[in-house]
Amino acid sequence: MKTAKPSGLSRVFGSIRRKAGASSSSENGNRTAAFQMPSSTGNYAPGSPEAAAIEALSKFCTTDPARTENDVDPAVYLPTIVESCESSPTASAEVAHLIGEFLGKPFQAQEQIQYKAVMILRILIDNQGVTTFVRNLNKGFASNAKTMLRSMKNPNACVLLIETLEKLDSMFPRDGSDIPAVVSMWRREKEKDRSGSQYGFALQPQFVQPPSLQAYPQQQQPFVPPTVQSPTHRRDYFSREHNSRRLPDPAELASRLEEARTSAKLLQQCVSNSSPSELLDSDLVSEFTARCTSASKSVQTYIAAEDPSPDDATMENLLATNELLQKALDSRDRAISNAREAPAHLNCLH
Prior knowledge:
The chain is built from 15 helices and no strands. By secondary structure, it is mostly helical.
């Protein structure tokens, strides 16, 4: 297994920990629609790293800011998840188990939950402090991940999962006896899908559409690329169409804007809590920068949409989201510029 690059995630999310206390009193009304929460594999004392990780992960994945009057930011739960996994192998195993459960069939109708679960997976894989985390991605996890991929009910969450699986694949040799079950599963899936009919839309986006969109009439396909795209073009759903003048339906638009805001907040945290050397060499910063750039282009397209035009409330939401994205990108650009100009002996300081 290749060694992950240091990401300093304990510090990256530390500055948002102080918000958690203010938000803890607003638990009612800020969760997504009712569903059966998955069970942990063990019982843990209140206050233990395991109990804290389980609670924080559940709240991060299921908290919906749109459903609370107190504007709870799910990002306040991230420090607890990361630090608990760093301090306790058992907590790390429980988090992996619960993420896997969120990818399973019972949550296929919960797009935001699955997206956030994969986002946590991506963050923990990148975290140098949880180098053993991927060893917890066992057969049960692999089975649920395969279920999510094959159903393709949430294309945007599936794209993020495929990108994450591709990163995992690159971390392990092609031949070996110590390959995590989820990596072996993904390699088999790619081998079966040589034609690209199932996963080609994410692995080769310039040629193929998501399977869930192929069955719709042309006028209902907001993601159809008008021209062949560069192979380096982003694979996420925001990047698939920046030229359409159509506004997504309200539910889809709300989902996209929530994911854009989450990416912007995480980019700001990564930038503000990384040393110059970490900033210049951070895969996570690069990933969130690409997501925010792509999201900003799409949001600007939605602002100018004519089919239909956004109403006043929608326009206000679009403008606020675009402002948040631009602030995150501007702060990243300034930080990168300063990091490149910083003397070499200061790059390791923060």
